[in-house]
Give the backbone structure.
Amino acid sequence: MSECIFCKIAAGEIRAAVVYRDDRVIAIEDLNPQAPTHLLVMPVAHYDTLADAAEDGRLTSALVAVASRLGRERGGARGFRLVVNTGPQGGQTVGHVHVHVLAGRAMTWPPG
Ligand code: AMP
Ligand code: ZN
């Protein structure tokens, strides 16, 4: 069985606050929110990184579409930020690709 925490969430083996779900994509509330809205949009199927998931262009566009819709719903006209940390130097800590959706405060640049 997979030891991946997000695979377990997608399978319903670990509880999470699910805000969206379809056949291929699931979105949850981040456990340690960095903004008033902080969601994670991920594929149900396991891919380590965005670079791996990008082999399936329909999947990556579905991830961006769901993340953008949720960002627009939560951020409204004030906007939102999508982040995909990729690999160790990219700051990725969970090895199952996910898109962060951040909204509800002004974001700063550059990111840390
Ligand atoms: P990253 O560092 O980009 O890989 O992001 C991983 C994110 O997953 C972090 O923002 C964590 O707060 C979040 N996270 C880790 N475990 C859980 C969990 N069980 N439920 C919800 N979010 C989680
Ligand atoms: Zn996984």
